[in-house]
Write a structure and sequence with these properties.
- The chain is of the alpha+beta class.
- It has one domain: Sandwich (Jelly Rolls), CATH 2.60.120.10.
- 19% of the residues lie in helices and 28% in strands.
- It has three helices and eight strands.
- The strands form two sheets. A four-stranded antiparallel sheet has the order 1-8-3-6, covered by helices on one side.
């Protein structure tokens, strides 16, 4: 894991595990860094706890199983507001993917996880099956 919370083995996954204890999270969307030449959305999935997300001045609560899509170049912040530290998994996807895919993915992520499961794991195989049904590749969030 490098200093900005990105897994060195999977650069399009942004893990907030290292900064979640600070209780104020402002992940870097970094679309150019993770997928040069494409504009990607950051999608954050809450796997435990309670958060507030502010996007362009609009504040919304986020609970376990919820997700939020942040288009590129939009300013946002996420604040952990629960009694115990919560967990969020973040990942970049191409814009235009159906919300149903993200809802299904949000409920399939392991509870309390801070990053996508290892590609060799059974949990990842389940997420890949969901993505295939929706015509999405988990490798870069592109259409399959």
């Amino acid at each position: 894991m490098n200093g900005d919370g990105r897994s060195a083995s999977d650069s399009n996954v942004v893990s907030l595990a290292e900064v979640r204890r600070q209780r104020l999270l402002t992940p870097n969307a970094g679309s150019a860094e993770t997928n040069p030449g494409r504009e990607l959305e950051l999608v954050m999935f809450v796997t435990s706890g309670r958060f507030e997300c502010a996007v362009n001045g609009f504040v919304a609560p986020l609970l376990m199983g919820d997700f939020v899509r942040v288009p590129p170049v939009l300013h946002f912040s996420v604040r952990d507001v629960g009694p115990l530290p919560g967990s969020i998994v973040s990942r970049h996807f191409l814009p235009g993917i159906e919300p149903g895919f993200f809802r299904e993915l949000a409920t399939a992520l392991p509870r309390g996880s801070c990053q996508f499961p290892a590609r060799s794991s059974q949990d990842y195989a389940r997420l890949r099956d969901i993505a295939t049904r929706w015509g999405v590749s988990l490798d870069c969030g592109a259409a399959a």
